[in-house]
Amino acid sequence: MSHPGAQTPLWRPAPERVASGNLAEFMRAAERRAGRRLTSYAELHAWSIEEREAFWDLIWDYCGVIGERGERILIDDTMPGARFFPDARINFAENLLRRNDGTTAMVFRGEDKLERRLSWAELNALVSRLQQALAAAGVGVGDRVAAMLPNMPEAVALMLATASLGAVFSSCSPDFGERGVLDRFGQIEPKVFVSADGYWYAGKRIQIGDKLAAIAAELPSVERVVIVPYLGEAGAVAARLPKGVPLAGFLAPFEAQPVTYVRLPFATPLYILYSSGTTGVPKCIVHGAGGTLLQHLKEHRLHCDVRPGDRVFYFTTLGWMMWNWLASALASEATIILFDGSPFSPTQTVLYDYAQFERVTLFGTSAKYIDACKKAGLDPASTHNLSALRLVTSTGSPLAPESFDYVYDHIKKDVHLASISGGTDIVSCFVLGDPTSPVYRSEIQAAGLGMAVDVWSEDGRPVRGERGELVCTKAFPSMPVKFWNDPDGTKYRAAYFDRFPGVWCHGDFAEWTANGGMVIHGRSDATLNPGGVRIGTAEIYAQVEQIPEVIEAIAIGQNWDHDVRVVLFVRLKEGAELDEGLIKRIKDRIRTGASPRHVPAKILRVADIPRTRSGKITELAVRDIVHGRPVKNTEALANPEALELFEGLNELQT
What we know:
This is Acetoacetate--CoA ligase. By secondary structure, this protein is α/β, with parallel strands linked by helices. Helices cover 30% and strands 23% of the residues.
C-alpha cells in the first residue's frame, strides 16, 4: 500500500466559504483569548491542546451554553479522574430546546409508511407532556428511562423529557432480540420502559408484542411500560402487559405548559450507551450531560459548520451513538431529519429522494452505505438536486479510497466529505472534518479541537508515517463519567488505561499522513499479525470490495503452525463462483493494492457474515468460533446464526 498523504486534493473549500464559516469566526475569538495570531487549523488545534481550559471556556461562550458556568474550568487533570467545569450547573434539554416557535424542529419518514413534521412549539409541547407524565410515574434525578424505539419524533422528545428531569436515558432499536435488550436494560434497572408497538423494515410490518411481553416480564424495576403507536396497535399491545399503557393514555392527564428544567452538575449522568458486547455482556458506558453537550456543540458548529436553520440528517438507529449525536443538532438550532427503516426501501434512492425534498445540508451515513450505493451504480449527482448539500459525513468503519472517489464523482463534486471516527466510548469523535482544509483521498482530515490525539508504537512512542495505536494523551470533557455497576472503576480503567497508564488507548490501529490527516486501519484488537507484522483488516477490505463478484468480506488471523495466517471469508453475488480464477484475482488485487503481506493464506466462501446491530462486521466473534472458543454474547449480533457457517470448516484444518 502506498504511503498515505501528499496527493492532489479531491476538494478544496472556496475562500469565501472558509471566510464566512463558523470556524473562521471562532478562530478570531480564539486569537483574542490567545493574544496572538492563529493562521491555520493546525495552529488553532495546537492552541486548543496547549490551553485546554481557555479553549473549552471559549466553546462555552461561543456556543452560548445555557447554565451557570462557575469559576473553575478543569481540576484533577488526569485520566481517568479529570473534572471539567466542576462548579457548573446545566440542563442538557434546556440547551436543545432553545427555540419555541412555528419553524420546523424535526421531520420524520418511516420508509414510505409514515411522514410527520414537528415545529419547535409542537416539540416543546410534547416534551412538556412527557415530562409531567414521567414525573407522575416517579421519575426523578438519576432514575433511568429505557427506550426501544424507531428513530421517530417521540424518541427525541422522550430523551429531552428525561434529561429535563435530570434522569438518565438509554436506548436500543426495536430489532434487538429479547436477550440483547435484557443484557443491556437489565443491568441499569429502568423505572420506565418505552417501546413502539412494532416497526416497518423493507416494506414489512414487524410486530413485537410477544417479544415485548417477554422483556417486560424480566425487568422487575420497571413500573410503567409505555407503548408508542407506529403500527397503530399501541392499545392492543399495552393491554397485554401488566404495567402497560399506550402513549395516549400516559399523556392524557397532562396539558402542555412551559417545560421546566432541573439544572444539575456538569458531570450528571445523561446517557447510558453500550459496548458492542461481542466479547461478553455489554459494558454500560455512562456519559455526562455537560461533556456530551460541549463536545457535540463543538463538532456540529466548528467541524460541521452547522448554522441555525440547517437541515441535519444522519441515517442511524437508537442502537448507535450517532442517534445521540444527531439529536444534539437541535442545540445549534438546526432542523433534524429522521428516517427509520431500510435505506433502500421502497427504492434504492429513498435517502437521496429525502435529501432532495427536505434540502438536507448535512447528509450523514456509514461507509457501508456509500459502498453499497457504489456497487448498485447509483448516480445521485445526475438524478437528484442536492444543491443544498454542503457536507457528507461517513463513519462506522473506515471509508475506502474508492468510496471517496465515488462521493465526488457520483454524489456531488462541490461537497465537504468528512470521514469521522470516534465511538460509543466518547459519544463523539477523535478525528473528523475540517471545513477550512482540503480533502485527500482515503484520509480523515484532522484531530478534533481540544483532543490531544496521537499514534503510538507498542512501546509508547509517538510515531509518524507508520501504524500504531490511536491514543489521546490529555483529558477531554466527553470521557465517560463511569461504567454502570463498576463501583471502584476497575472495568473503566481496564477498558482504556491499562495499555498506557494515564493515556486513553482507543483500540484503533491508525496512521498519521503526510498531509497531517489520519487513516484508521481497523480495530487494533482485531488486527492481523502474520509473521509479526501488524496488518489492519480495513486495508484488505478496501481491495477485495473492488472485485465485482464480492458483496462483502471478513478477514481474521488464524493461529497456524506457531504463527498467524490470514484467512479471508467472502460473500459473493448470486451466480458467482469462488473458482481458481476468482481466488487469483482477489489475491493479485490485494498484493498490488495493499502488499504481499496482506495476501490471505486461505480464501473461503460463506453465505453470510455476522455483524453487530450497528452494522459492523464482527471479526473477533468469527476469530473465536474458528479457534473453538465460545462467543459470549451472540445477542449483540444482528444475525447470530451466521456464526454457525464458520464452525468446524474442514478447509481451515489444512
